[in-house]
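Subject: design request, 131 residues
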């Protein structure tokens, strides 16, 4: 079989091929986020707490009365119930674990004492006691 005249070799694909580049101009779409001037970084992105956290927290390991399952308990935060739920959600996402609010305590699944200490200090807790 010979080469047909209408088969022309296609150019090699570009390393930065942008198949929808023509649509941007046609539809009047703005440039991507890299073209925008960076503004001031939010406090969460810089690692600094947005506001001072609780004065103290007690982090401890517990297995008794839990069917042999290990949990990390965070106590003495002195936060409102809604704030406790928010803190629990943030800790669960950061640690990749489950957890629940029991009375005024955060109960996280697993032995996470060292990791929880670092996260609490990053959130502005001034004194973290681990036992």
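Subject: RE: design request

Done. Sequence follows.
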């Amino acid at each position: 079989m010979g080469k047909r005249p209408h088969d022309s070799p296609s150019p090699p694909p570009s390393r930065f091929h942008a198949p929808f580049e023509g649509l941007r101009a046609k539809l009047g779409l703005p440039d991507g986020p890299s073209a925008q001037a960076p503004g001031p970084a939010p406090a969460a992105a810089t690692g600094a707490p947005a506001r001072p956290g609780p004065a103290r927290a007690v982090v401890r390991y517990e297995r008794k009365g839990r069917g042999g399952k290990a949990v990390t308990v965070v106590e003495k935060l002195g936060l409102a119930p809604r704030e406790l739920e928010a803190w629990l959600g943030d800790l669960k996402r950061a640690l990749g674990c489950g957890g629940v609010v029991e009375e005024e305590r955060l109960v996280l699944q697993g032995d996470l004492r060292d990791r929880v200490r670092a996260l609490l200090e990053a959130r502005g807790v001034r004194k973290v006691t681990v036992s």
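DSSP finds four helices and five strands in the chain.
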